[in-house]
Design a protein that fits this description.
Layout lengths: L17 E5 L11 H7 L3 E7 L1 H11 L9 E5 L8 H18 L5 E6 L3 H5 L2 H12 L4 E6 L9 H10 L13 E5 L4 H13 L5 E4 L14 E5 L5 H8 L4 E2 L7 H15 L4 H26 L3 E4 L6 H12 L2 E7 L8 H6 L5 E6 L1 H11 L3 E4 L1 H9 L4 E3 H6 L8 H19 L1
Helix pairs in contact: 6-8, 9-10, 10-16
Bound molecules: iron/sulfur cluster.
Length: 427
């Protein structure tokens, strides 16, 4: 088993120049986050206030649910002038009332803003405040924006959790420090993490978001939080404004990243390094073994990341360090230097980093480089496949449980599969 490499000892891409592009971009909007958030928060409902386009996006991203009672919907706002906005507020109240009468299981309702001009004109925070007064304490009503003008793809989760953070109960101000894991994780991953923290001697860990709005974790000056996702800048700020402190760590992707993430928590909460190692050893060993077969297939292959999910930098670090891939370009919609400091230090020093997008220029760079694998959004994948390139949809990396030791092999498999498929097609 390879040792955990001290993060401070390396500088990698910490000071590397970043190509900043502000041209046309090809990314999903923040509404997409509803797909995984509604699965995680089991008594929450997401009411998108938007257009038919928004309804189509959500429906096609989630798949059509025929038998289940879905926990998201779109209130479609047709074109109206400013004089009609009072009616729109009344209409929204009527829609919410009907929804809550029909669905008594809803305890938390998010009004989710979108980008059509009619919605931008409508003050959703005022609507949420008014509806909250009317329906609380049975139902809490909050709002956030998933608009494509303000958010990309995973920023929808950030906006949602940042809106929820002020509603978390206050933790007592004295006593032992408390650990909070922040970021929506699949239940199976949350359960594995909870077991590992318990084995480390930290049984009192909370997860935000929680599965139920009735068990929201408490937050306060004794809370130390560990981000499980790299796209939660606003959420971190909202928790810090409640007195909580972030534990600096890389993200729990791969054997090495997961080990360093748990070690950071252990160091912050006073668990000895050897105690953490002992608790992690069996899971870490399984992860290293699961990765070895994939490493044979991926080592030396060249990969190009288009910006999409904000997972790009931790994923690139995992592919380079644990699977031996060569990074040509790592694009991210937004680079949060502070939250990604440990990841940047682990990237090979010659990695080309880009932030934002000018899609035509980036496509030119990608074509010139002819990578073995391109990680990109759905809109770019088909045209690039038609040009003979092998692609991986970045959306799959968000919808699939990939965090932690027991998912490390599955995560590597997401990159070996498209290469294998291309080989079969070429045979
Ligand atoms: S929020 Fe904007 S970008 Fe997203 S689906 Fe609706 S109209 Fe399109």
């Amino acid at each position: 088993m390879s040792p955990v490499i001290p993060i401070q000892a390396e500088s990698g891409c910490s000071d590397a120049p970043v190509l900043r592009e502000r041209g046309q971009r090809e990314v999903f909007c923040g509404l997409t986050g509803i797909i995984w958030l509604h699965r995680k928060m089991q008594d929450a409902f997401f009411l998108v206030v938007g257009s038919r386009t928004c309804a189509h996006l959500i429906q096609s991203a989630a798949g059509v649910m025929i038998f289940a009672e879905p926990r998201f919907a779109t209130a479609i706002l047709d074109e109206r002038d400013l004089a009609g906005l009072a009616d729109a507020q009344d209409e929204l109240d009527r829609v919410v009332q009907r929804l809550l009468e029909r669905r008594p299981d809803i305890r938390l309702l998010f009004l989710v803003g979108s980008c059509p001009s009619e919605v931008i004109k409508l003050d959703l925070s005022r609507a949420a405040g008014r509806l909250n007064q009317r329906f609380s304490p049975k139902v809490r009503v909050l709002n956030y924006s998933g608009s494509g003008i303000e958010t990309t793809f995973t920023q929808g989760e950030d906006a949602c959790l940042a809106a929820l953070a002020p509603a978390l109960p206050a933790a007592p101000t004295s006593g032992e420090p408390e650990l909070m894991v922040v970021g929506a994780l699949a239940d199976v991953v949350e359960d594995q993490f909870r077991r590992l923290f318990t084995a480390m001697g930290l049984p009192r860990v909370s997860f935000f978001p929680s599965r139920s709005s009735t068990t929201l974790p408490a937050v306060g000056p004794r809370t130390q939080f560990l981000l499980a996702q790299p796209f939660l800048g606003d959420t971190a700020r909202a928790l810090e404004s409640r007195g909580a402190r972030r534990i600096a760590a890389p993200f729990p992707l791969g054997a090495e990243g997961s080990a360093a993430w748990f070690h950071a928590a252990g160091a912050a909460l006073g668990v000895s390094r050897s105690g953490v190692d002992r608790a992690l050893a069996p899971a870490r060993q399984r992860a290293v073994q699961a990765l070895s077969a994939h490493r044979q297939q991926l080592a030396g292959k060249r990969v190009f990341f288009f910006p999409d999910s904000q997972l790009e930098i931790p994923l690139a670090r995992f592919l380079a360090r644990e699977l031996g891939m060569t990074l040509i370009e790592v694009g991210t919609p937004y680079l949060h230097r502070q939250h990604l400091a440990e990841e940047l230090a682990w990237l090979p020093a010659d990695t080309r980093l880009s932030e934002g997008q000018d899609v035509e220029r980036q496509l030119d760079r990608c074509r010139a480089a002819q990578p073995d694998l391109v990680v990109c959004g759905l809109g770019l994948a088909n045209p690039l496949e038609a040009e003979g390139m092998t692609t991986k949809w970045s959306i799959e990396l968000v919808f699939t449980p990939i965090q932690g030791f027991d998912q490390a092999g599955d995560l590597a498999g997401l990159f070996t599969r498209p290469l294998h498929r291309r080989q079969l097609l070429a045979a």
